[in-house]
Amino acid sequence: MIRFENVSIAYDRKSKPALDDVSLEVNRGEFVFLVGSSGSGKSTFLRLVLREYKTEHGQVYVAGQNVANVPSWRVPKFRRGIGIVFQDFRLINTKTVFANVAYAMQVIGKSRAAIRTEVPRVLELVGLEGKERRLPTELSGGEQQRVAIARAIVNQPGILLADEPTGNLDPTTSAGIMEILDRINQNGTTVVMATHDDDIVNSMRKRVIELRLGRVVRDEARAQYTSMMPIVPAAATVGASAASQGAPTAAGDPSAVVPSMDDGAPQTRRQRAVSAAAAGGTAGEESMPPRLERNRGRVYPGGTVEEFARNGEQP
Ligand SMILES: Nc1ncnc2c1ncn2[C@@H]1O[C@H](COP(=O)(O)OP(=O)(O)OP(=O)(O)O)[C@@H](O)[C@H]1O
Fold it and tell me: Which domain holds residue 284?
């Protein structure tokens, strides 16, 4: 359904490639998590599928079509086969829930009769029946994301791309969104979701493609993911922890992710926080300011968000 053949792209000549010789294939009907730390190339991958950019090297095929050969005037039609959901919902706040979803059908010339049938069907699928007349501002974040998903699938795309769709949502609401994405996938839509959230990845056990500095470093079926260095007591060093586990050290490699394993299984962020608290660690879940909390798990050149939080800095 999606095939990348030796794809490389840099945003400008001076910078390192955002994607570097990426080759992979996503089959029809698959559910794939695209993971990796901030700046690893996840969004760039999705943008290439959408043909927002053309590759410099290599080829991107979507539904059997080489996207480089889609002329500009045909791009809107090409994109009808792809639904997309973003972290920040991107709804039209002056339109009702019904009108937001209907709009996606109107712009491609669907009939009123089709809109009257299809919009209620997808709103029911995402659990929003009864809320058709609300404005987005009258909905919770999770409900707004459901509207965005309904809008993305109302024209029955073969592919649904999701770029951090749970990034603004709490764990319970996120789980509800994942149930919906899973249901859409079970109805036959290929789903590719970019995320940092290891709790979600580990609860779903789907294929995981991990990017680091634009390269694919892992591609595994029914996989787990550890999105950040472990939260360790201040006295312990990351290098010592990693060495004792035989894991790669983050020293000198800002994108390195050090798995935290007690019993061989990667831990979720919550499990790590509990372990750290039990060990007298200082980076508890509650102690982090909201902006840093949002970026928990991201690894910056100077260290993890947790380290910045401990030092009272902003990354
Ligand atoms: N519009 C742009 N112009 C210049 N460089 C860009 C642009 N967009 C992304 N980049 C760079 O390309 C690289 C990959 O970025 P990308 O947004 O694909 O990463 P990501 O994995 O999606 O990150 P995040 O999880 O933070 O969204 C990064 O080094 C980033 O700085």
Answer: 238-310
More confident residue, 129 or 278: 129
Summarised one tens digit per residue, pLDDT across range 104-118 is 999 999 999 999 999
What lies within 8 Å, CB to CB, of 211 at 6+ separation is 19, 22, 34, 35, 36, 40, 41, 42, 45, 217
Among 8, 38, 86, 296, name the best residue to mutate to test ligand 1's pocket (greatest count of ligand atoms within 8 A of Cβ): 38
Any ligand 1 atom below 6 A from CB of 299: no
pLDDT for position 228: 59
Examine residue 134 and state whether it is found in any structural domain, yes or no: no
- How big is the chain by its Cα radius of gyration, in Å? 21
Instruction: Decide if 279 is inside a domain.
Output: yes
Separation of CA 68 and ligand 1 centre (Å): 21
Whether ligand 1 lies within 6 angstroms of the CB of 18 is answered as yes
What is this model's ipTM? 0.97
Residue 263 lies in a domain: yes
* 292 within domain boundaries: yes
Q: Is the entire prediction scored with pTM above 0.80?
A: no
Count of the separate structural domains present in the chain: 1
Distance 115 CA to ligand 1 centre (A): 36
| Ligand 1 close to Cβ of residue 39 (< 6 A) | yes
